[in-house]
Specification:
By secondary structure, the chain is an alpha/beta fold. It folds into three domains: about 270 residues, Divalent-metal-dependent TIM barrel enzymes (TIM Barrel, Alpha-Beta Barrel), CATH 3.20.20.150; about 130 residues, 2,3-Dihydroxybiphenyl 1,2-Dioxygenase, domain 1 (Roll), CATH 3.10.180; about 180 residues, 2,3-Dihydroxybiphenyl 1,2-Dioxygenase, domain 1 (Roll), CATH 3.10.180. It contains 19 helices and 25 strands. Helix 7 links the parallel strand 6 and strand 7. The longest helix has 19 residues.
Length: about 600
């Protein structure tokens, strides 16, 4: 098990609030970024004392820039700067200085020259009981490969000089990892980690603005962690995250996510350390409503073919079922759902997620420092969900319906079989946090991030799935204030479930039957079908059936996807009816058509 650390540059706020957040999250160590010290109103000795009072170890002081390979007189000035840094480190109570490779246009090439400079610096450090760690910046002028940085350290051959490995600088360049196990573990003084999305841009702006916590990006961190295991490294793993969103988010939230991301990294290093309970899908969805809203929603459910199968004998709670889909309508005037309704209006207040092994799921949540909450309206353990909602955990045999009276069996021949996926809208600043939560705590795996055009801007859409596809979640966020997603946030007073997709085996027969029940679907314009005909060359009869039922259609190399939508309920959420034919996506090319149609309806 490695030791946990984070650099203060990863968090927002003043130095004191950063350090308090880091300690509260459970980290063992901290890297002090020099700028945080420069803006602190107090002596370095007080900073070091405060860090120790919090139970933290000051792992490193960083960064020391533009040192190696300089001509005179710049070389002498660099050594003078180093002596001042050693004085500062002595006051702080730390012994490791992070030296990053030179980016100055004045620096001279040559590994031997750099090694001589580091040897001399190592001598100064050793005289003070300190050490020097050398890191290759991906944009270093002459040294930008960790293998060259290690070669410089190897040639310096000094006990106080080692190397520092940074996952971003290595993985962003696609460097082979085979060199890491060749470095003696005692010469790796520190390892810094960061994830990141795959972006086509320069390395410096990519690093300075778009780093993520492990589990939030797309870099091959599992391979990186395996290389560290092969190198027998057991020291500190420290987060160094430059991200504009993190710099504006509360430091405690980012620190908590950061600690969770390191547990995720440890799991990558030791597969099976935290067994993943299988996710069997959504056991139920609970709506918080008042009595008039409940009556309106239940009328819609009747038109969708649901039957009311259970009710509470004394409370305004009813369960509607069709196939494996259970929808709970909670119109109570007190309790959790009522409180949630007061804040958000008609809304999904809770999800019941079925797992194969409940104790395993709870142990996993505890390991990731997610609290188990006292039961809400159901005798089930719950985890905190988006915007104060609840994520109940249950097994297929959990008696959560025991308090309710059975009324009628569900439809014998259901049109709608199961919940295909749920879509949540959230503020953009929360997207990475919930991606990490679902990935780490529930074991879901992300698909590629998609950008969906809205008439008023772009919506970022991130799908996450269990390995067998039984549980699928789509997370949506938008920076643009007038998009449908952003307006949902405004009307909802926060994030939540915007739509529920229900699976059918025959979408044409289903929609015909539900239309006879009085269900109205979202009208799709004629132009969409003209384009569909040109794009796919569909059979005329199929195209006519799609138009008749307002069905959107998409093809992949493997299969086909059909989707239709109900009218929006309360201008907030809606249902989707889907049919998959060997198709694994979500109809992303149709999303802009659907959104435009919904915007037209909302405008009346």
């Amino acid at each position: 098990m490695f030791k946990t650390s984070i650099a203060t540059v990863s968090l927002s706020g003043d130095l004191r609030s950063k350090l308090e957040a880091i300690a509260q999250a459970g980290f063992e160590g901290v890297e002090l970024f020099e700028q945080d010290l420069l803006t602190f109103d107090g002596p370095p000795k007080a900073v070091g004392a405060f860090i120790r009072e919090l139970g933290l170890k000051l792992v490193a002081f960083q960064p020391f820039r533009d040192f190696e390979g300089l001509p005179e007189p710049e070389r002498s000035r660099a050594f003078e700067r180093a002596l001042r840094k050693f004085d500062l480190m002595e006051a702080l109570g730390t012994e490791l200085l992070l030296v990053c490779s030179n980016v100055s246009p004045k620096s001279l090439p040559g590994l031997e020259r750099a090694a001589e400079d580091l040897y001399e610096l190592g001598e100064l450090a050793r005289a003070r009981g300190m050490r020097v760690g050398f890191e290759a910046l991906a944009w270093g002028r002459h040294i930008h490969d960790y293998r060259d940085a290690w070669e410089v350290v190897r040639r310096a051959d000094h006990p106080a000089v080692g190397t520092i490995l940074d996952s971003f600088h290595i993985l962003s360049q696609g460097l082979p990892l085979s060199g890491i196990p060749r470095i003696p573990p005692e010469k790796i003084f520190l390892v810094q980690v960061a994830d990141a999305p795959r972006l086509e841009m320069g390395l410096l702006p990519w690093s300075r603005h778009f780093r993520n916590l492990p589990g939030q990006g797309q870099l091959p961190l599992q391979d990186f962690m395996q290389a560290l295991t092969d190198a027998r490294y057991e020291g500190y793993i420290s987060l160094e995250i430059f991200n504009d969103q993190f710099r504006s988010a509360p430091p405690r939230e980012v620190a908590q996510d950061g600690y969770r991301s390191l547990i995720y990294l440890q799991e990558l290093r030791e597969p099976g350390r935290l067994p993943r309970p299988g996710c069997l899908g959504v056991g139920f969805v609970e709506f918080a409503l008042d009595e008039s809203e409940a009556a309106e929603l239940e009328d819609l459910l009747v038109r969708m073919g649901f039957a009311c199968t259970h009710r509470h004998p004394t409370r305004q709670i009813r369960v509607w079922q069709q196939g494996q889909v259970r929808l709970v309508v909670n119109a109570e005037s007190e309790g959790f759902a009522h409180s949630y309704h007061l804040l958000h209006g008609p809304a999904v207040c809770a999800l019941g997620l079925e797992v194969t092994h409940l104790p395993q799921a709870l142990a996993r949540a505890q390991a990731y420092r997610v609290p188990t909450l006292a039961p809400g309206d159901w005798p089930l353990p719950a985890l905190p969900g988006l915007e104060g909602s609840l994520l109940y955990l249950l097994e297929p045999t959990s008696p959560w319906l025991a308090e309710l009276e059975p009324l009628a069996p569900p439809p014998e021949v259901p049109h709608l079989l199961r919940i295909d996926h749920l879509a949540q809208v959230m503020p953009p600043a929360q997207l990475l946090s919930w991606r990490l939560f679902y990935r780490s705590v529930l074991g879901l795996e992300p698909r590629d991030l998609t950008e969906i055009p809205d008439p008023q801007g772009l919506i970022e859409s991130q799908a996450l799935e269990s390995p067998d596809g039984r549980l699928r979640l789509v997370l949506n966020a938008s920076q643009h204030h007038e998009t449908l997603a952003a307006r949902f946030l405004s009307a909802y007073y926060g994030g939540g479930v915007q739509h529920i997709a229900l699976e059918t085996q025959d979408i044409f027969a289903t929609l015909e039957a539900l239309r006879q029940n009085g269900l109205e679907t979202l009208p799709i314009p004629e132009n969409y079908y003209l384009d569909l005909e040109a794009r796919y060359g569909l059979d005329e009869a199929l195209l006519e059936k799609l138009k008749q039922h307002h069905i959107l259609y998409e093809q992949s190399e493997e299969g086909e996807f059909f989707q239709a939508y109900t009218q929006t309920f309360g201008n907030l959420f809606f249902f989707e009816i889907v049919q998959r034919r060997n198709y694994g996506g979500y109809g992303a090319t149709n999303a802009s058509v659907r959104i435009a149609a919904q915007v037209r309806q909302l405008r009346g």
